[in-house]
Amino acid sequence: MPTFPLELPRLDPREIAAAVLDILLVWYVLYRLIVLAKGRRAWPILIGLGVFFVLLLASDRLGLVTLGWILRQFVPLGPVAIVILFLPELRDVLERLGRLDFWGAPVGATRRPETPETIEAVVAAATLLAAHKTGALMVIARETGLEDIASTGTTLDGKVTAELLTTIFQVGTPLHDGAVILRGGRIVAAGCTLPLSDSPNIATNVHMRHRAAMGVSENSDALVVVVSEETGTISIAQGGRLVRGVKPETLREKLMEGFGGFRLPGKGIAFKRAKPKAEGGTR
Questions:
Q1: How many CA atoms lie within 13 A of 261 on its CB side?
Q2: How confident is the model over 162-207, as pLDDT tens digits?
Q3: What pLDDT is recorded for position 71?
Q4: Which of the residue ranges 23-37, 79-93, 172-186 has the most confident prediction, judged by mean pLDDT?
Q5: Residues contacting residue 140 through CB under 8 Å, at least 6 positions apart
Q6: Distance between CA atoms of residues 82 and 93, nearest Å
Q7: With the C-alpha atoms ordered 263, 265, 270, 276, is the resulting torsion angle positive or negative?
Q8: Does residue 101 carry a pLDDT above 60?
Q9: Which listed residue, of 93, 118, 133, 269, carries a Cα 20 to 30 Å from 54's Cα?
Q10: 85 CB-contact burial (10 Å; exposed 0-12 / middle 13-18 / buried 19+)
Q11: CB-count burial class (<10 Å; 0-12, 13-18, 19+) for 125
């Protein structure tokens, strides 16, 4: 029987590169979506869907006719059910797809010239309010503008100072019961209403002010500083996670790191120098 030499198909390098890029992009997006879903209400739902498809596959393999028939009746409703169940998460995912932090990029590009002064004012105000056990909720916007949340409060557009922040949160003032939105060195609005976190992993001793801080940090890339009126402790929320009982020095470091600062050996945190514009100004 004659034999013929085995000829391998010629592979175009561009097709190989496109296939590798396609696999890497799909893997990375799925990884980021799983990280986003973990610890939130969507995670148990995803596990439930996985159990559903495992049962459907097992019923076909094991010959469980009745169970397989019942499960298959729900399959046509799957797309509609997924949209209804994951509507808040789908909106969150679409919003995060347009943000740099979803793709792992640093947020240093969102830093503004007023950031060091803003951080010092926030730390000073939080320290003073904590000493007097005065509750406070300060939301510092980064890439996400938070205009929808700012619209729930009273527009101020004032420069961020420790004196103004402590005055706003004094008990008895009209705007003390709510959050302030800070952006670009300005107090955009005060007395704002924040969305509460719906994470199933929140401890029972986490009160409304801290739940609100976690909620807005879940739905945006903002940094949120909370002062407890019960214990006088300072907390910071970022990415849906709450760190409680931080010292003023730790708060300053976390805020500076969150706005593009870098650590100097033995000298704490500093900011990168902005590159001068072509006209000779600074950004």
A1: 18
A2: 999 999 999 988 898 899 999 988 999 999 999 888 776 777 778 8
A3: 87
A4: 172-186
A5: 118, 122, 182, 183, 222, 223, 224, 225, 255
A6: 14
A7: negative
A8: no
A9: 93
A10: middle
A11: buried
Q: Is 133 helix (H, G, I), strand (E, B) or coil?
A: coil
Dist. CA 179–CA 213, nearest whole Å: 9
Residue whose token pair is 């010292």: 247
Backbone CA torsion sign across 159, 162, 165, 171: negative
Cβ 98 vs Cβ 105: under 8 Å: no
Residue type, 180: V
Q: How far apart are CA 31 and CA 13, in angstroms?
A: 27
- Listing DSSP states for 68-129 in one string gives HHHHHHHGGGHHHHHHHHTHHHHHHHHHHHTSGGGGT--SGGG--TTHHHHHHHHHHHHHHH
Q: At which residue do the structure tokens 């002010």 appear?
A: 209
Q: Where would I find the H helices in the chain?
A: 13-37, 42-62, 65-74, 78-85, 87-97, 115-131, 147-150, 162-168, 208-218, 248-258
Two tokens, residue 158: 């004032």
pLDDT for 234 equals: 96
Domains of the chain with CATH codes: 13-97 (no CATH), 108-271 (3.40.1700.10)
Q: Largest Cα–Cα distance of the chain, in whole Å?
A: 99
Which tokens in the block code for residue 229? Answer: 């009126």
